[in-house]
Design a protein that fits this description.
alpha/beta, single chain, 152 residues, 5 helices, 4-stranded mixed sheet, 4 strands, Collagenase (Catalytic Domain), globular
Amino acid sequence: MSYFVDVQRDIENPDLPSDEDFLRWVSLALTGRKTAGEMCIRLVEPEESQQLNTDYRGKASPTNVLSFPFEGPADIPMDLLGDLAICAEIVAQEAKEQNKLPHHHWAHMVIHGTLHLIGFDHIDDVDAEQMETLEIALLASLNIPDPYQQGV
């Protein structure tokens, strides 16, 4: 398995996960689902997150993670998965509000976003249950509690 993650850090914050953490979480999400892949994780400020969320989802507020799957020509095989834009401030705020360890919430956001890049979604209840069940299992393999349980 060959995975490459380009982490773009325009934010100065020593509490952010390491590049190795990001690669470990992406690899976990992709193992058994993709044999190779390249992606970019961009850590953004709330203003950029809000602009992206407005432009691409029509929602005028910052959000935790946005996924932008790569859509290349169907007849040219590529291992490009796409990009994640993660708002560090929102992730930290949510972790605090939900009484979660920041590192655990980061792992969840990266795994969640990566699964979106490879086609998982949660628009309807059946898809949401499938995606959440997978996230819970992947996080449990890291000894991270179920992120969908309040106060965990």
